[in-house]
Amino acid sequence: MVTTAYSAGLFGIDGYVVTVECDGVDGLNDLRLIGLAEGAVREAKDRLRAACDNCGIGFPQCAMTVNLAPADRKKDSSALDLGLAAAVLAAGGKVPAESVAGRLFIGELSLSGAVRPVRGVLPMVMAARDAGITEAYVAAENGAEAAIVEGVTVFAVSSLSDLASALRSGGGERVTPAPFAVNAAAAPSLDFADVRGQERAKRALEIAAAGGHNILLIGPPGTGKSMLAKRLPGILPPMTFEEALETTRVHSVAGLLQTGGALVSERPFRSPHHTMSAPALVGGGTVPMPGELSLAHNGVLFLDELPEFAKNVTESLRQPIEDGCLTVSRTAGRATFPAELMIVCAMNPCRCGYFGHPTRQCTCTEMSRKAYLAKISGPLLDRIDIQIEVPALSWDELSDKKEAEPSAAIRERVTAAREMSRARFDAFTAGSCANGDAAQSDGAEDTHDDEQPREPGAVSGAELYAREPRRRNAHAVWCNARIEPRQLPSMCRLDDAAEATLRAAYERMGLSVRGRDRLLRVARTVADLDGAEIISRKHIAEAISLRTLDKEYF
């Protein structure tokens, strides 16, 4: 008798369904695993045997062969334990065979029979839903995470005996999805009201937050660069459900979700040490895992003491900054990780830190200072939209009793600016779709015959657009930094004075085409903060003032 259950595995941040087929026949008490079962999966049969005995279920007394399909894909995850147990118990007559058919089982077994949580449950259940599976059994600690996925009924089990009882009764303890609530009303733990002075740097961070721009803070030690950067998440807009789902997916695979946790509702802030390696930043491993770039997806990656990072580490930022994602290739295959984030860098102007300080003498030679700054390449600097100086504070600025503006007030302006950019992008998208539909209707060869059905599984462009928000460049909705070159003429309209100022800056500063486009995007954000649809000269001028450090220091 052959019984079939379903489990799942991970590759990168994507899950895939594993079909567990078990054939039980009369014979010696034996269990054989086939289907490229590796390390942790090969050991599962010993865990299963001990768990059955210790739970009082008893291991089936027959010879069994278990196949894990697809058979040409290596499987090395303890998450398959529960699926293996369900198929074996059904084949041995311990539970009804129909009770495991068409259901998903994810969890690791202990020798005592307890079901332990595993990482990556969210993408696994999402893959199962896409495959048409509507019921899933997971560890109790993974229940809230799995219940996020719409269209799948989740049952939580704490032990193998609980699973057997649930399968015999035709159900189990259902997990109710936790409601998703944005953290709009929550006061940030780190507030800009705590920062004395540095009004220009605060303004630069507000512009960066409103447009999703990368920013470099440069100045002497102790001027508040790290303090400012750590408060940036407090002025970013609340996460949307789609952003929270993407972020949770990455953190689930990395095993960073809190026990029993569901959606990540706050934007991540990652601050790795400068001794990190390139694979730790971009991701890697024999089976690729997400790195710091992906763990900061939809949030902030803070690189303090930027020149102290190895050159190959900082250079690996160049492609993800442009594409918003990265692909890691290994022997086991290729995995693509998301990397839509803000990169905030901080650095000193020289190795001693006091070049240009008003009162302290710099001890660096000209050669050592240039060698220090040379660790940051021109192409990388060109991808950082805003470069702002954070100077030393005077005594009057430090002792000023005037209350600084809180993060909540700044956040309101940032959110309003992003909503303005969202409306602009929606209008652009609607116009593009209308023009595309008109062009298709005008073509003689592009007629549509409603009597001819689509191929099985095929979807229209409109359906794909609605189903997968990532395909419509969702972050351009929120971030001016992601405006594509083809969108610049319509989204970044300039008056005559602004265009003349931009041309003069392009020629005088020797900007690259990329630099010119990024300057235009920053000006678009400044205009959005002013509530202006047309970019004026003052908006261009402020954007230029935020890009002068590459000439002053470099």
Order of strands, main sheet, comes to 12-15-18-11-19
- Radius of gyration computed on alpha carbons: 28 Å
Strand residue percentage: 15-25%
Largest sheet: 5 strands, parallel
Principal-axis shape equals elongated
What's the overall average pLDDT, rounded? 86
Low-pLDDT residue spans = 439-477
* Secondary-structure content class: alpha/beta
Question: How would you characterize the overall build of this protein?
Answer:
It is a single chain. With 554 residues, this protein is an alpha/beta fold. 39% of the residues lie in helices and 16% in strands. It has 24 helices and 19 strands. A 5-stranded parallel β-sheet has the order 12-15-18-11-19. The protein has a 4-stranded mixed β-sheet with strand order 1-2-4-3. α21 runs parallel beside α23 and α22 crosses α23. The longest helix is centred in the last third of the chain and has 36 residues, at 407-442. The radius of gyration is 28 Å and the shape is elongated. The N and C termini lie far apart (74 Å).
